[in-house]
Structure formats: structure tokens, C-alpha cells
Amino acid sequence: MGRYVVRRLVQMVPVFIGSTLLIFLMVNVMGDPIAGLCGDRQCDAATAAQLKKEFGLDQPVWQQYLTYMGNVFTGDFGTAFNGQEVTELMSTAFPVTIRLTVVAICFEVLIGITLGVVTGLRRGRPIDTGVLLLTLVVISVPTFVTGLLLQLLLGVERNWIRPSVSPEAPFGELIVPGLVLASVSLAYVTRLTRTSIAENRRSDYVRTAIAKGLPRHRVVTRHLLRNSLIPVVTFIGADIGFLMGGAIVTERIFNIHGVGYQLYQGILRQNTQTVVGFVTVLVLVFLLCNLVVDLLYAVLDPRIRYA
Amino acid sequence: MRGATNAGWAACAVAVALAATACGGGSDSGGDGRAVLSSSWTDPQNPLEPANTNEVQGGKVLSMIFRGLKQYDPKTGEAEDMVAERIETTDSQNYSVTIKDGWTFSNGEKVTAKSFVDAWNYGASLKNNQKNAYFFSYIEGYDKVHPAQGAQSAETMSGLKVTGERTFTVRLSQKFSSFPDTLGYNAFVPLPRAFYDDHDGWLAKPVGNGPYAVESYTKGSQMRLTKWDAYPGEDAAQNAGVTLKVYTDNNTAYTDLMAGNLDLVDDVPAQQLKNVANDLGDRYLNTPAGIIQTLAFPFYDRNWNKAGSVKVRKGLSRAINREQITDTIFQKTRTPATDWTSPVLGAEGGYKEGLCGEWCEYDADAAKKLIEEGGGLPGGQVKITYNADTGSHKLWVDAVCNSINNALDNDRACVGNPIGTFADFRSKSTTQKLSGPFRAGWQMDYPLTQNFLQPLYYTNASSNDGKWSNKEFDRLVDEANAETDPATAVEMFQKAEAVVRDNMAAIPLWYQNGSAGWSERLSNVALNPFSVPVYDQIKVG
């Protein structure tokens, strides 16, 4: 187990370097970031040159990348164009997005798995068909439609929630955005769980468990569900990274000042430091999530062992 | 009983969640209940230094916490004395400034002549990276502190001299009669010592001499400003304070206004313009701002700088149905342009309606004829370059092309050429890499005709991206700048503008309007010539 983890961690290094290099190059291809700083007017040459020097933009790209990575390993992610440290931006943005992700994952786990179990156990019944139809609708409607609709309905028409989330973004205000963010994944989780449960219901160990005379809920939760969760856990694990980076749409609709907002603004303003910094952290999150998922397999299914 | 406990826990979680949502909706509707109003904002692009703020959002804050020598009247755009007692000159080149007694910064420090001179020197100095440094370029010695190349050879401008506690003199490097009128711009405000002594601290919580003081500032999310009770000026705030809230999307801000969580939106999103009358009734304002959109041409490209090119440009101008585009695409939030300045200047300030004359009127037949006479479109097609990331540029460029195609009966006469980001678009246009007409927007720095002409059309001027050059125009501008009588100066500028028209150096499209919508709590909302709400005059309740 320990050796497996170490091996996986070592494997992360080339992935990490490769992905940060790619994003660094992509941001650089977009053109000269200084030109956008002066609005609809040309920056005077002297100031532009001075700014370029200050942000290290006068050096060749490979050198910029090396300097940048060197700084990253000492915890310095550089400075955004508005004079704020990128680490400072991260310290305000990540907690908000993590809260939003936690809410979304809670919805996925609570509602998604519950619905999946219910429909998986009652295959072909009206409730199964109903939920299946519902998930189809949710999957086919884009997030921004659900988001804007819920915002108008609950925020403006009914006044149950605030249409926008306050800067502090407490859990209470993140429930509706979290639900919107989770909606599509939630539908997938429901369908995955349903299929998995329906398949495993017919397996030998379930029959044995029933034959032993175990109570029904114990058969379902201990034996059936635990074994059926492997594909679901894989999906949710990958989804954590996806939700954190892919919340741009939801964060815009509900005015949440999280990672998506910073990334969006960073791209618009061609702020290399912000974009690369945030993406680097997101890459790390993805890698770690994948590792945790792989380790969870062993917990869920004792037959899987890592050496 | 394991299953039951689990189910119970889930039920609890849902109950808590619902309760929390309900709480979130009920409390706090717009401010603190006192006469504090909340207003939409976006994160300023640059640090909030006066000489480094070149966009509206940072300008909003500066206009609340600072007062300069002059202040522009929100209605007429005229520059009136604010901190200045008088600004005198005999030759349009040497000015002596006297400031009023009794002005202080909100931290108690006195506003003196030195507060101004130090601030201007800071703004001009190359090492401080101030993006508005060019504002000081008329002052003698600017080329020493901000050389075009190489290191600066002086710390301060030789043209600025403190002559007393409340007096200083300014010597310009050339005659510039309307110089005092430029002094209402944010770059010219005075700065307290704290700005230099504790720069980071000042940026975290700026201190100025305006009607409001910053109470708290959370970068990237909101700023609370409260009325400064000891404010010495006459335009003291009519409300207790303003909370600026950062919105990523102006649609969300508008929704928040509808839901009663926000009092003032100063940029009504294009998608909502159809609903505005229904939603807000008369709580909506749509007035011209000092912004004009034009199509500029690459004069460095031989194809656009031939003998017949003038006719081609004029033909293109006549092929654009401005009326129709501003009505359908912009829902009348743009006004078809008939000159190269802006209505906010007023007739006395140099705006001349209809100066463009027939050349800005839509006439398909005339357009066709002109372009034919001029030798046809270079390469048989015009490509209008624009940035696709912000604004609704794609919409109107497509509409303009449609209009041109219809007028010329040729489906391929005009196409749009989108560039991904604004920054990339700017870097291509400023380095002369574009080969056809391109979008050019101009937001004035100060309400003067000079500002709409010189930076854009003077030979090698800072924003003359198309590199248009005309001796006659340059001469007229120089003469106008030297003219001491404002009325005559305006006349000269209009003559220069006529040169721009006769050569169709750029096709004027439309004047942009500023818009604002507000809640029932507010009254007396107005926009200044820079389309920033005049916060201090807003009444709450």
C-alpha cells in the first residue's frame, strides 16, 4: 500500500510539469497582455517596457516558465496585474469554491445515491421510469438555463433566496447554486447507481446474505450498496476536480467570487500569473482526487489489493 | 436501527438546508436600512492610484473620495473651480494656481500646493508605472522624468514650482489654452503624505479629500464608503454612504436590483433593454456619454492609402445604416453619430451636430457609386476587425457588414474578422498588424473637443493606431491649442474636424450612452459625462 502510494506520487511529477507547461504556453500564445491594460489607447512605450520588465515578460518563454516554476516551489505564485498577490486571490477564492463543491457533492451523494438505490431496487416500476425520465430532462438542459430559471423563480418571483451570493458565501446561500452545479452530475450518479445496484442484486453474495436471514436494510446498505459504489466513487472523485474548475457558469450566474470567477477574469485580462497559478492548483486537486479514488477501491472492495 | 438513523440524519440535513435558505432570503435587503445605498461594481483592473486608473470602475471610487482643482458639472460637462480658488495665465503657457483655504484630507492633513505638485510628479515619473502618465506630458520637464526610451534623468518636472503654501506655478512645454479644463480629471487630484509613506496601507484603504471616506475595502468583493461629515466642500454627500458590490456579470446585478437586493445598477445589460421600461418605468436613465465608436483605417497599408481611397471610405460610410442598427441592435442606447466628438461637450464645448453632413447619411446608390469611382474595395472585400470577448461587438459588426453588403448588392463585400481577446486585439492594432478597417472606441479623458481629435488623428499621436497623417489638420490643432479665447479655439478645432471629414480619416458610427437603473428608495440619480453616477447627489428614502 505505502509503496503504491509513493509510486503514484512519483508518477504525478511528469503529469504536473507537462500540464503546467501546456497551460503556460497556451496563455502566452494569446498575445501581449500589456496591450490590454491601457484600454482603448496605446500604452506609452516607456511604461509598457517598464511593466514588461517588472512582470518578466521581456524574457523568452522557456525562461519565464523556469522562473515561474522556481517561484511556485517556494510558494510564490506571482502578482496579478491589479497588484494583488495570486496567493492572496487563491486564499479568498478557494474556500468559497470548496464550500460550493462540498454542497454540490453532498447533493450528489445524498440525492443521487438514494434515488439510484430506490430505482435500482424497483426496476421497471413507475418510480423507476419517472426518475429515469427526470434525469434525462436534467441532463439535457444546460446548467445556465437551470441556474437562471431557479434564480428568477426563487430569487425574484418568490423571494426565498438572494439571487446573488454575498462575498462571504456562507453554506446557507450556496445551497441553490450547489444544487444547480450538481444537477447534471446528480443525474449521472443516479443512473450509475441504479444500473450497478440492479446488476448486483442478482449476484451470489446478495442471495447468500438474504439466505443468512439478514434484515433487508442491512443487505442493501452493507452488501449490495458497498459493492455497487465503485463506479459511482470513480465518477464522484473525478467530478470533484471538474466541479471546482468548471463552476465558471454557475459562479457567474450567482455572482460567487470563487475559482471560476478568478479564472474567467484572468483569461479576459490575459493575466498569465492568475490563470497559470489557479490551473496549477486545480491540476494538483485532480491528481490527488484520482489517487484517493484509487485507494477507496480497496476500502470498498476487499478483493482489490495494492502492492 | 442503523438504516433509520441514517434516514433521520439525511432528513435533518435537508431541514437545516431549507431553513438556512429561508434565512438567507429574508434578511438584509439593500444596505443597512439607514440612508446607505448599494451599487454595482466590478473589480478595478489596476491598483487604485489616481494616475493609474484609466477605466470607469476605478474612476467611480476616485470620483467619490477625491476632489481636484476643477470639477466637471454633471449636466453641462463644464469644468468649474473646486479646490482651486483661481487659475491664471497671460500667455496660455505659464499658469499660476491658487487653492482655497480650509481643504483637508479625511485623515486631517491639510491640502496644500505641495499635495498637488508631489502627486503630479509621482504620476509622471516613469519608475512608478502610472498608466495615465501621459496626462502630464504637456508640463515642461515631462520628457526628463518620462523619456520615451532609456532611464529617466530627473525625479521631478521642472515646470512645476511650489511658490507658497497655497500657490504653485505650472509651465507647459507648449501653448495649451484649455489646460485648466483638463484639471478635473482624476489623474490631477492631490495626494496625502500617507500615499508615499505607507503605500501598501494606502492602497488597502485609500484616503482622499472627497465627500466620502473609505470605511472598508475587501479587494475583489466590496467597498464600503461612508459620508465624510467634516467634508469642507459645497457638494457634501446627500446620503449616508455607498456600498459598492462587485458583480461578475451585469445580468446578475440587474436580477439583484429586481429582487430588491441592490439599489443602483449603472450598466443595464443589453439583453434586458427590452424589459427595462416594464421593470423599472421611470427609474431608468439613458443619456449620452463621452464615448464614440468609429471604424479606423490602416493608413500604413498602401491599399487603403491610394488616390481614390477617400471615395471608398466615404462610400463605406454612406453604406452603413446607422439609424437602423442603433434602433434594432442597441435598442436606442447608441445615438447615430453626425460628427467626430460627443454630444456631452454641448454646442459651446465644440460638439457640432451634422458636421459630417451627407457623408454619414445612409444612401445605398450613392455608396455604390462612390466606391466604384474610388476604384472598388481593396481586394474586393473589407474585413472589419474587432475583439469578440467583451461588449456586443460581434452583433454590430455583423449588422454593419450586412448593411454594406445590402447597399452594394454583394454578399461578400464585407465580413467580420473577430479576434479572441481585447488584449490581443489591442496589441495587433497598436503594432499596425491589421490590414482592413477596425473597431475603434474612444472614451474621452476630459470633456474637450481637443481630446476627441488630437490623440486620435494628430500625426503619430498616442492613439492614432491607423497612422493617419495630415499637415493641414496638425497645423489647425496647433493653432487651436495656442488660442487663448475658448470660443475661437473651438472654432479652430471644428475646422480641423472638417479636415478629418473631408478625408474620412475614420468613419463615425455612433455615440454611446450611459445607462443606469435604480430602486424605489433612490431619487435624484444622474450620470456625469464619464457615465459614472453622481453618487453624492443621490437621495435615499
UniProtKB/TrEMBL annotation, chain A:
Assigned GO CC terms: plasma membrane
Gene3D superfamilies: MetI-like (1.10.3720.10)
Family annotation (InterPro entries): BPD_transp_1_N, MetI-like, MetI-like_sf
Organism: Streptomyces regalis
Keyword presence, NAD: no
Main location: membrane
Family from the record: Belongs to the binding-protein-dependent transport system permease family.
Domain ABC transmembrane type-1 as annotated: residue spans: 94-297
Localization terms from the record: Cell membrane
The name this protein goes by in its record: ABC transporter permease
UniProt KW Cell membrane keyword: yes
Membrane topology: Multi-pass membrane protein
Swiss-Prot/TrEMBL GO biological process terms: transmembrane transport
SUPFAM superfamilies: MetI-like
TrEMBL record, chain B:
Matching InterPro entries: Peptide/Ni-bd (IPR030678), SBP_5 (IPR039424), SBP_5_dom (IPR000914)
Biased composition (Polar residues): 37-54
Region (Disordered): 33-54
Gene Ontology cellular component terms for the protein in this record: ATP-binding cassette (ABC) transporter complex; periplasmic space
GO biological process: peptide transport
Presence of keyword Signal: yes
Keywords: Signal
Gene Ontology MF: a single term: peptide transmembrane transporter activity
Protein name: Peptide ABC transporter substrate-binding protein
Domain Solute-binding protein family residues, every copy: 83-463
Secretion signal span: 1-22
Top-rank taxon: Bacteria
